[in-house]
Specification:
Number of strands: 10
Family: Belongs to the cytochrome P450 family.
Subcellular location: Membrane
Order of helices and strands: HHEEHHHHHHHHHHHHHEEEEHHEEEE
CATH superfamily of one domain: Cytochrome P450
GO biological process, one term: xenobiotic metabolic process
Largest sheet: 4 strands, mixed
Protein name: Cytochrome p450 2d17
Helix content: 40-55%
Distance between the termini: 101 Å
Cofactor: heme
Radius of gyration: 26 Å
Strand order of the largest sheet: 1-2-6-3
């Protein structure tokens, strides 16, 4: 009996010690969390209550973050703070706020947050690509080199314009082969737009039926889908979770497969590379890598070639093809707009000659429709996150150095103080009283400032030539047995239309 009582007393003592330890660890963890989250800054933007460990992440629908931001904006104003675990985030809303940050405080807001979730792709020191690279010497050298090389290979020149016009012809031929049957335009448009960037980066285009090409496009789409949702935000905010074996491989399987495919394309390219003859962007980058230590210091290495190439695909293909798909969808839903565009095309170009960029000046209505597609389609609603390079003030609020900034571009493109009918498809937003084209300053689909989209110039050219060529050759109608397409879109970094079928009637 005494032995039993002794054992009971020992167990009771042990349990008491465990309880005390548990309470201590709980208090310590909560105190640590509080210290990580507390802010001593005055004039810091307001925001929702931050919960232990997860911060304010429960307030955000990461599948439609721009909608969550618009709700919070009504309560806290155009600038408010959030907290992803222990990462301080400030969301900027409305044209005046975003302009002040990206244009007037351009360098202050030019940095990018570090993305630990990309490390398994080769992302790291001196290898950050361009789009998400942190602001500094290497980013400046890479961006300067990329823009100058793209110009050498025709960006902004007639040579690239002719290439786009030729690809528009291939696209029309592929649509003709559908013989008026209902079809999903997504695949053919993706192929056409992606071919333009493939020609520039790898020196050649793919046939639309090429299996490798289909695989490339599918892998790229999968990789974008993995960027959206709660999990990527959590892994970047708490990078220690990425050290759990197998987590990056399972969470970002599509990204890894896409980069593996890029490796295959680059390796094949290197087999035929001749340093004396520069065929395309890849050759130019390889040639720069040969310059030794100075080039290495500027980020010219194999890992960066892979990442810059992936950036060019993202900047030069998916946003443009998605915009074109929104454009055709709006023509289905607004046939009167489609008829007015076609009438202008017939008057200025006719039905035989291929459109050129010179025609744009003489086609204010078509130009207005394309811009309204970009505005109302709201393709990149929240842009890519910025990070403050140093302490700065915005609208009277202090934004400390190292704060992640989210630019709610959707709130700019649909700012009620700027646009007459912000929530309607209304091409007259871009026409003056005399029917001439005008572009309001709040038109920022490519963002603005030092981090403005790398592919903006190419995208503008592609949108005009592809869109005009398609409406020159076809009238797009909704198949009789199909429901009215949805307009809300689905978000995965890029907001794209839900799948829909279309009939292309030759003109």
């Amino acid at each position: 009996m005494s032995l039993f009582l002794w054992l009971a007393s020992q167990l009771s003592s042990c349990w008491s010690n465990i309880s005390i330890l548990g309470v201590f660890l709980t208090v310590f963890t909560l105190l640590l969390d509080f210290m990580m989250r507390r802010k001593n800054w005055s004039h810091y933007p307001p925001g929702p209550v931050s919960l232990p460990f997860i911060g304010t992440m429960l307030y955000i629908d990461f599948r439609n973050p721009h909608l969550s931001f618009n709700k919070l904006r009504k309560k806290f104003g155009n600038i408010f703070h959030l907290q992803n675990c222990w990462t301080n985030v400030v969301v900027l809303n409305g044209y005046k706020t975003v302009k002040e940050a990206l244009v007037q405080r351009s360098e202050d807001c030019a940095d990018r947050p570090y993305f630990p979730a990309y490390e398994h792709l080769g992302y790291g020191n001196k290898s950050e690509g361009i789009v998400v690279a942190r602001y500094g010497h290497i980013w400046k050298e890479q961006r300067k080199f990329t823009l100058s090389t793209l110009r050498n290979f025709g960006m902004g020149k007639k040579s690239l314009e002719e290439r786009v016009a030729e690809e528009a012809g291939f696209l029309c031929s592929a649509i003709n082969s559908e013989k008026g049957r209902p079809f999903d335009l997504r695949f053919l448009v993706n192929n056409a737009v992606c071919n333009v960037i493939c020609t520039t980066v790898f020196g050649d285009r793919f046939n639309y039926g090429d299996e490798a090409f289909k695989k490339l496009l599918q892998l790229f789409e999968n990789s974008l889908n993995e960027e959206a949702g709660f999990l990527p935000q959590l892994l970047n905010a708490v990078p220690i979770l990425l050290r759990i074996p197998g987590v990056p491989q399972k969470a970002f399987r599509g990204q890894k497969a896409f980069m593996d495919f890029i490796d295959v394309l680059i390796d094949k390219h290197k087999e035929t590379w001749n340093p004396a003859y520069t065929r395309d962007f890849t050759d130019a980058f390889l040639k720069e890598m040969e310059k030794g230590k100075a080039a290495e210091e500027n980020g010219f290495n194999y890992n960066n070639l892979r990442l810059v190439t992936a950036d060019l695909f993202a900047a030069g293909s998916d946003t443009t093809s998605t915009t074109l798909r929104w454009g055709i969808l709006y023509m289905l839903l607004h046939p009167e707009v489609q008829s007015k565009v076609q009438a202008e095309i017939d008057k200025v170009i006719g039905r035989e000659r291929s459109p050129t960029m010179k025609d744009q000046v003489s086609m204010p209505y078509t130009n207005a429709v394309i811009h309204e597609v970009q505005r109302f389609g709201d393709i990149v609603p929240i842009g890519l996150p910025h990070r403050t390079y140093r302490d700065t003030m915005l609208q009277g609020f202090l934004i400390p150095k190292g704060t992640t900034l989210i630019t709610n571009l959707s709130s700019v493109l649909k700012d009620e103080t700027v646009w007459e009918k912000p929530n309607q498809f209304y091409p007259e937003h871009f026409l003056d009283a005399n029917g001439q084209f005008v572009k309001p300053e709040a038109f920022l689909p490519f963002s603005a400032g030092r981090r403005v989209c790398l592919g903006e110039q190419l995208a503008r050219m592609e949108l005009f030539i592809f869109f005009t060529t398609l409406l020159q050759k076809f009238t797009f109608v909704l198949p009789e047995d199909q429901p009215r397409p949805r307009q809300d879109g689905r978000f995965a970094l890029i907001k794209s239309p839900h799948p829909y079928l279309v009939q292309a009637v030759p003109r």
